[in-house]
Predict the 3D structure of the following.
Amino acid sequence: MTATTEFCNDLSVRGREWKLKDQAEGGPAIEGIHPSAVSVAVARGFDPERFFSPKLRDELPNPSIMKGMDEAVAIFCNAVQARKRIAVYGDYDVDGATSTSLLVRWLTSIGQPPIFYIPDRIAEGYGPNANAIRRLKEEHDIEFILFLDCGTRAHAPLAVGVELGIEMAILDHHEPDDKDPPAVLVNPKRRDETGDYAYLCAAGLAFVFLVALNREMRNRGFFNEDRPEPDLRKWLGIVALGTVCDMVPLVNLNRAFVKIGLPLMGEIPGIRALQSVNATTKGLPDFNEHTCGFVFGPCINAEGRIGDTRSGTTLLAADDENVAMEMAVKLVETNKERQEITKAAETLAIEIATTQMAGDSTIVIYNEDWHPGIVGIVAGRVKDAVNKPAVVIGRGGTGSCRSVTGYSIGAAVDAALAAGVIDKGGGHMMAAGLHVKPENVGELRRVMCEQSNDFKMLPVEVDMTIGCGGLTVPLVEGMEALRPFGMGNPQPRIVVHGGYVTRVQIMTGVHIKLHLAGRFGSCKAVLFNAVGTPLGDALALCEDKFVDIYGRSRIDFHAGKNNAVILIDDAMVRPDVAEEAA
């Protein structure tokens, strides 16, 4: 590893500057951990001892430090001991399904299985709604509702609950407004909170709540031989799944949840069933952060997007193997349907973004045929393809927005709302949602571009630079100690510099492999699905040129041995002498 910041060009093929992160002055030697992995962890601001060996006892806070926690625990435990009729009301995404299933499991394990309610994405929308609360009261005589992953800003629906005499508590992690909801609120983003645990998702917050429940019920003498204290540790696989899929920073307590929880995912019948149904000719998918985000999570999300929103929670709460398998088959089939719908929309959206809207600073695309449940996925794919903020609007004017690093799409949506261009909308730095009348889409496109016209992309951060030939199998394997990767702890981005392209190889007509030679030896760099893309087309013309490659390292097994390769995210091409002179 070197600390050079000298790259072969000022801008990359994608039009980005590269910036090497401030390098740590080394770090403590940790047995079994590659020194370069320690250096990356230290440079990211982590305590290496805790980072590489996270322990729940070190990271779990006393639940009582969270505002509202003691009150929420007290009234919930009172409801349990009084055997009140309890409903758990969640959300239709993975975080909602995981957090809801945790509470369903806890209540079921003590002999009081609850009613759980997940709103329909299209008919009801996100969060509590008055009609649902009324039905829970009328049809099930519900006396207590615990809202998970929603509720912080649902003032009007919750007021209906108050009128009906329903006791309510909220476990949520979404941004509050300037009013307090008419229910006991536990939210690490409350205005009066320290923000120390604002990185938690609902699944993580629900686990902390369960820790507090066990403590309180233990103190009350509730548990006995016939009603043992629930073993929370065996549910950490559910917490890991929710934490990865909600894309919260994998730091501190979240890292402990995921690092410890991933190996325990097989303890959950529903996750085991999903693993079995997703088996391929290569075998069963592993339990890791990648399969959480790209195999298991999408199956649960698919039902929440275009199917039965209760299915994900049913799967994760099930201990009956037959029920788990039935739900897993249903989820996987729905996900295949979702993939087909999404692929067609994605292809068309990217074509429009790269042709009709190539000059726009923010891409705004509307198609009445697109299901509202997939517009967020399509917006993310468009954003990745063109490296610009993207707004994708589907049936009924429901839109989803995704942004690039450094640009607040939420602020842009707020501006559109203030201008009266959209009916409603809101979000945060990287994502937002909105609703717009079809006749206003053109004006929305103008306003969104107006907001982003002066935005300048931030430099891409580089974790380490390596001379061509210096990327070795031991180094790449050593970087695995930094896992699990995710938000707040991405897979290290490296630059292999000083490489001379001796050969450009087109594989199966769509992928590109560069054969590089340099000061320390040779290296291979790969870009999948490259042909026909701006980056791929530029790399195809790089034979006999010097390039620097930005990307992620990987081990490939080829010709009977392991080889270190770099997967290309971007590249810089050294200008020819004539170009430099010009």
